[in-house]
């Protein structure tokens, strides 16, 4: 038995944004305070994740805030020719202020503003809920530049993203491109893409609650990426048709060609922190088909 359209319609609705918007405003104001120890350095602040992309559902809680150091950047020059790499090396200089310094100062400042529950031990700085605020994860990161050429000093032929460290591993990602592509996909699908993402997120949560899949098997980031590959024609008149069309298309697609929503990273690869394991993707689709029939 297919899941009733009325249930899918309910699942398509966006969760409350009032408290999350207030949480973001208060954290942003704290980070922009001129008394902060990092205030003299260049940085950007923006939302990412479900609240940033308008795909939040009622069960979502954490607000994901990015504070990106821009006065220091990190780079990838692997694509450069030997001549271009030599020119880039000649222009290179050591930054006196590193991302580790920035994260430490951001964490310390947030602790003075929001109390001792602030925890910087993970990849993001956790700011616990309080005073009407939601829980928040503040990712202190730095600008990342992937150079394509370096034919002249101070070349701007690069792709801009963010980077941070998880242990000894540098993780590079592209949240701006992710957000822009989700907006474009939503428009090209007659504004059905983002509600459909919310349907799949609620489907995933219901599957976890009923024991069809394990918690953490299908992160929201990868569900957004998965659906961003689905043709616009699948986001049609009903959500029942959308689920059937999307799952059918994904089942027949070449998994090695699917991309994340940013259009830069592959969606499915083994051993990459920014990619979904293909086995997890297949497990999710198989369990979804069974859940759909047994609902």
Descriptive overview:
With 295 residues, this protein is α+β, with helices and mostly antiparallel strands. The chain folds into two domains: 18-173, Beta Polymerase, domain 2 (2-Layer Sandwich); 178-294, no CATH class. Helices cover 42% and strands 17% of the residues. The chain is built from ten helices and six strands, in the order H-H-E-H-E-H-H-E-E-E-E-H-H-H-H-H. The protein has helices at residues 5-11, 18-31, 49-53, 82-91, 99-114, 175-188, 193-209, 220-228, 239-252, 278-294; strands at residues 43-48, 63-76, 125-127, 136-147, 158-166, 169-173. Strands 1, 2, 3, 4, 5 and 6 form a six-stranded mixed beta sheet that branches. A hairpin with a 2-residue loop joins strand 5 and strand 6. Helix 7 (193-209) crosses helix 8 (220-228). The longest helix has 17 residues, at 193-209. The termini are close together. The model has no long low-confidence stretch (mean pLDDT 95).
Draw up the topology in text.
Layout: H1 5-11, H2 18-31, E1 43-48, H3 49-53, E2 63-76, H4 82-91, H5 99-114, E3 125-127, E4 136-147, E5 158-166, E6 169-173, H6 175-188, H7 193-209, H8 220-228, H9 239-252, H10 278-294
Parallel strand pairs: 2-4
Antiparallel strand pairs: 1-2, 3-4, 4-5, 5-6
Helix pairs in contact: 1-7, 7-8
